[in-house]
């Protein structure tokens, strides 16, 4: 087991390097001269040349990448020009808020996705299955940003059950209940699509598993149906669903961009949107690298979990 | 959703006679998919004819009439904060959203499929490099990469289109590569290569047509997302820039006025939703049609107990085809003290309009400490008979259509589910054929034994574990304490079958139903397992119903034998009677198929022809068409199982000569 985790950690290194290469290459697509963009059109050619040298823009693409990478490895992600503070500080601060939101969503979508899928499979073609299948289809078709707006209007503006937006109340907030009240709507909205995807996959996997010979064996042993479904079938289906939950973590982290914008959640997604609008490229780079790296880590976690459940997976 | 008509799309199409309905017909049968298709087509048509509709200029501002609610005069859907007509903007916006979504989808499909086909076709290093690249792109959270691309290229509708297309390329590349790898070594590709076609021609004329369905499926499942995601980027202000508007940017603008003018965000958002939903409904329908596994309806969930519907059964009194002995009195004598007695068992599979009579009136009994063999070719109904006894036939599509299974004087088919469950693994236990697929792969064998024990006894986990180890020792598994922790895949085939037998013995059953327990094993292991079963029978006095196709195995273990053909017992008797003096021509041929040591010159006679399909059985003898003794009378009507004396019985008008000792 330890060997397996270690091996996976080592294998992660080229993936992380690849991520930085892709981010770097995308950023080098930027048209025009960054030095000119920073200094504005009134800058003198000397100033531009000096800034270009300062920024390392006169060096080859490869050495630019190398400088960027080694700086990052030393914790230097550059300085955000729009916020005038180190990128890493800003990113880490924002990332905490995103982790809370995405973590809560991921929990919601895992629990409800699995539950819906199992119920749907057990009641196959019954009214519960048909209703759930339709609801799930709505869930994966509805634009999350629109759903968020409509929920906000209903639960916060009309019914006043929940706070409209933000992470904490401005006055007298800051404790856990306050956070949870603010978290409910964004977390639910963000979880909807992923719940649908997990539910569909769980349903089809359960149906597949329930046809297997070992389920017949479980029945032939005289086990009661609940045990057959929730122990034998569910465990076998779960092995196939876990990697997809890992993939859903990516959709949740990405989808956070919309939800954070709608609910004014001070997370990294909203930061990215603002940074793109203000063309704060270093901030975008740093944010994307950190979020992508955390996603890679999460997938590693999902793989280890699958490995724990399924004895057949070889290290 | 719940109207009975909608269930038509779930039933299985008849396989014979009528040809498979066309894809369009199948789509029309799926009501939801049809609904999706109609809505989607409607939206497309509206988008196409928008320029010719009598609409106001979508960008014409009218400050005097700003924020009018829907259904206002001259503005059906109201106006926005600049007084622009919302209906006109909605239609023009839909046009843009559709165009962008579909273009992104085509773009992703083209490049993704190209990567997938090339990668799968050339394999090796090309494949490796391309797929590692794709993996890298997939290592990003989906929309994040699109954001990075937009960040680099700058906000704008075209840039959003490229971004969304690029992040969707991996889905196509992976799916298409998978299919390509599957067909690249097929005969038609090889023959194209041998005929001297170049790579490009092979890719275009042989590979592409075969992966097209997968491209279509992937497109139908991703185009909805792509519309959604480009709308999302516009919503964030990173896509369409004013004055250009798509549904997403309209929603983004409307959002600022959500409390004062709800219609400005509700309507464009609702439009995105309807559009994406219709595409997803249609996409699901397309996938169901193109994916043959779903189409066959094989994914139906089997119920815990086979469906029992004996409404058409006219009872055991019916002296029909299924009777063993002519005289009821003699029968009762023979069956006195029988642990299992089966009367006129009928099991059917209903697939569409066809009824497959897998078991068509089977009667037999198993006495105490007796081993009865049920012998037949594959498809003769012997396994279905075995599974029917305790309602383990998968249902749907299986149904017990008639008969009785008497276990200690009670009819199993009259029992409640809980009672049947108590018998399963308790008084009667099964041993199945392939122990790799019949043992749960994710539980240790000890755990699975413990479950079997605890399903019928209130004992602690620890006690049950000790008993499990004892059971493993009893079936002669070496080092049972350690083996109990093993998983099925860590054991050899013979070991797994021993575990299967141990599991059957867990609650000291009176009857073991062994469904081809030795078929998947090699000959030496087979002999060991048979010996084990014989020993256990002697020690515990267990009765055994032994299902097999192998007369060699029968002679080793069985006291009596019933030979099945096309769902019926055609001959029955003691092992000696049947093996030495087969009365039915079919039994005779079957025994002749078994090669014997020392008879090198003997010709192994395969039986010509095939058994009849059980959904299309002849009126008379089912073997008549393959029988060289067949006469007209054989085909005239049902034939009874006639006694020959001493418990030997045969279902044949012209039986072989029987020399009784």
UniProtKB/TrEMBL annotation, chain A:
Domain ABC transmembrane type-1: residue ranges: 95-301
Highest taxon, organism lineage: Bacteria
GO CC aspect terms: plasma membrane
A GO biological process held by the record: transmembrane transport
Main location: membrane
Pfam families documented for this protein: BPD_transp_1, BPD_transp_1_N
Family annotation (Gene3D superfamilies): MetI-like
Localization annotation: Cell membrane
Record field: transmembrane: 9-30, 95-122, 134-159, 179-201, 236-259, 281-302
Entry-linked CDD domains: TM_PBP2
Keywords from the named record: Cell membrane, Membrane, Transmembrane, Transmembrane helix, Transport
Matches recorded under PROSITE patterns: ABC_TM1 (PS50928)
Membrane topology: Multi-pass membrane protein
PANTHER family per record: DIPEPTIDE TRANSPORT SYSTEM PERMEASE PROTEIN DPPB-RELATED
Record-stated family: Belongs to the binding-protein-dependent transport system permease family.
Name of the protein described by the UniProt record: Glutathione ABC transporter permease
Organism listed in the record: Thalassospira profundimaris
Lineage: Bacteria, Pseudomonadati, Pseudomonadota, Alphaproteobacteria, Rhodospirillales
């Amino acid at each position: 087991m330890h060997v397996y985790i270690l091996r996976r950690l080592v294998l992660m290194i080229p993936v992380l390097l690849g991520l930085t290469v892709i981010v770097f290459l995308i950023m080098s697509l930027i048209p025009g001269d960054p030095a000119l963009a920073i200094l504005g059109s009134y800058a003198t050619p000397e100033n531009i040349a000096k800034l270009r040298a300062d920024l390392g823009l006169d060096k080859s693409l490869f050495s630019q990448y190398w400088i960027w990478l080694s700086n990052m490895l030393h914790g230097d992600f550059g300085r955000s020009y729009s916020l005038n503070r180190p990128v890493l500080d800003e990113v880490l601060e924002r990332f905490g808020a995103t982790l809370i939101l995405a973590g809560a969503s991921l929990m919601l979508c895992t629990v409800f996705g699995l539950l819906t899928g199992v119920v749907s499979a057990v009641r196959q073609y019954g009214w519960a299955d048909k209703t759930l299948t339709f609801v799930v289809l709505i869930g994966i078709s509805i634009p999350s940003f629109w759903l968020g707006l409509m929920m906000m209007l209903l639960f916060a503006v009309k019914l006043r059950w929940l706070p409209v937006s933000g992470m904490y109340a401005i006055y007298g907030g800051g404790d856990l209940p306050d956070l949870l009240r603010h978290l409910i709507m964004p977390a639910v909205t963000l979880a909807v699509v992923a719940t649908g995807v997990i539910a569909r996959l769980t349903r089809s996997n359960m149906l597949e598993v329930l046809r297997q010979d070992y389920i017949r064996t479980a029945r032939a042993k005289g086990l009661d149906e609940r045990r057959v479904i929730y122990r034998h079938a569910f465990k076998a289906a779960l092995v196939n669903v876990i990697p997809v939950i890992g993939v859903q973590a990516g959709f949740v982290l990405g989808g956070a961009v919309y939800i954070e914008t709608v609910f004014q959640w001070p997370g990294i997604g909203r930061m990215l949107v603002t940074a793109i609008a203000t063309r704060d490229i270093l901030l975008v780079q740093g944010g994307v690298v950190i979020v992508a790296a955390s996603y890679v880590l999460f997938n590693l976690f999902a793989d280890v979990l699958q490995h724990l459940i399924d004895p057949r997976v070889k290290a | 959703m719940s109207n009975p008509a909608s269930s038509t799309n779930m039933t299985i199409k008849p396989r014979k006679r009528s040809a498979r309905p066309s894809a369009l017909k199948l789509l029309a049968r799926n009501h939801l998919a049809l609904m999706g298709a109609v809505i989607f087509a409607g939206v497309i048509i509206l988008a196409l004819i928008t320029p010719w509709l009598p609409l106001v200029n979508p960008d014409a501002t009218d400050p005097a009439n700003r924020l009018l609610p829907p259904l206002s005069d001259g503005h059906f859907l109201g106006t926005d904060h600049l007084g622009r007509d919302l209906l006109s903007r909605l239609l023009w916006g839909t046009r843009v959203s559709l165009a962008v979504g579909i273009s992104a989808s085509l773009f992703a499909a083209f490049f993704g499929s190209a990567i997938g086909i090339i990668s799968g076709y050339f394999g090796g290093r090309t494949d490796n490099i391309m797929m590692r690249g794709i993996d890298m792109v997939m290592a990003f959270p989906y929309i994040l990469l699109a954001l990075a691309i937009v960040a680099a290229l700058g906000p704008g509708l075209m840039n959003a289109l490229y971004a969304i297309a690029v992040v969707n390329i991996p889905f196509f590349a992976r799916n298409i590569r998978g299919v390509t790898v599957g067909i690249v070594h097929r005969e038609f590709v090889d023959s194209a290569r041998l005929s001297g076609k170049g790579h490009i021609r092979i890719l275009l004329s042989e590979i592409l047509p075969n992966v097209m369905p997968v491209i279509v499926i992937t497109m139908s499942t991703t185009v909805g997302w792509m519309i959604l995601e480009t709308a999302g980027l516009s919503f964030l202000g990173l896509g369409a820039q004013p004055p250009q508007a798509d549904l997403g940017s309209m929603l983004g603008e409307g959002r600022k006025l959500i409390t004062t003018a709800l219609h400005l965000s509700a309507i464009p958002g609702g439009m995105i939703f309807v559009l994406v939903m219709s595409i997803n409904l249609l996409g699901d329908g397309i996938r169901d049609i193109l994916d043959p596994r779903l189409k066959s309806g094989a994914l139906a969930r089997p119920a815990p107990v086979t469906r029992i519907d004996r409404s058409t059964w006219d009872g055991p009194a019916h002296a029909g085809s299924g009777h063993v002995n002519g005289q009821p009195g003699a029968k009762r004598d023979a069956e006195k003290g029988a642990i299992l007695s089966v009367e006129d068992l009928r099991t059917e599979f209903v697939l569409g309009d066809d009824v497959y009579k897998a078991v068509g009136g089977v009667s037999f009994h198993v006495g105490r400490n007796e081993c009865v063999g049920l012998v037949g070719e594959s498809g003769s109904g012997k396994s279905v008979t075995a599974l029917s006894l305790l309602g383990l036939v998968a249902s749907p599509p299986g149904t017990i259509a008639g008969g009785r299974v008497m276990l200690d004087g009670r009819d199993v088919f009259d029992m409640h589910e809980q009672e049947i469950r108590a018998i399963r693994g308790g008084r009667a236990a099964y041993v199945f054929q392939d122990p790799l697929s019949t043992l749960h792969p994710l539980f240790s064998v000890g755990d699975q034994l413990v479950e079997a024990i605890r399903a019928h006894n209130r004992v602690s986990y620890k006690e049950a574990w000790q008993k499990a180890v004892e059971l493993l020792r009893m079936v002669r598994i070496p080092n049972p304490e350690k083996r109990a922790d093993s998983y099925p895949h860590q054991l050899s085939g013979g070991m797994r079958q021993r575990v299967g037998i141990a599991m059957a013995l867990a609650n000291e059953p009176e009857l073991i139903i062994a469904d081809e327990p030795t078929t998947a094993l090699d000959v030496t292991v087979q002999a060991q397992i048979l010996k084990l079963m014989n020993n256990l029978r002697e020690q515990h006095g267990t009765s055994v119903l032994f299902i097999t196709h192998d007369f060699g195995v029968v002679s080793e273990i069985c006291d009596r034998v019933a030979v099945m053909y096309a769902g019926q017992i055609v001959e029955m008797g003691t092992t000696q009677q049947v093996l030495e003096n087969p009365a039915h021509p079919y039994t005779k041929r079957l025994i002749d198929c078994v090669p014997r040591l020392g008879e090198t010159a003997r010709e192994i006679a395969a039986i010509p022809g095939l058994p009849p399909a059980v959904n299309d059985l002849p009126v008379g003898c089912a073997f008549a068409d393959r029988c060289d003794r067949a006469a007209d009378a054989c085909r005239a009507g049902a034939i009874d199982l006639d006694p020959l004396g001493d418990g030997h019985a045969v279902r044949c008008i012209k039986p072989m000569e029987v020399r009784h000792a």
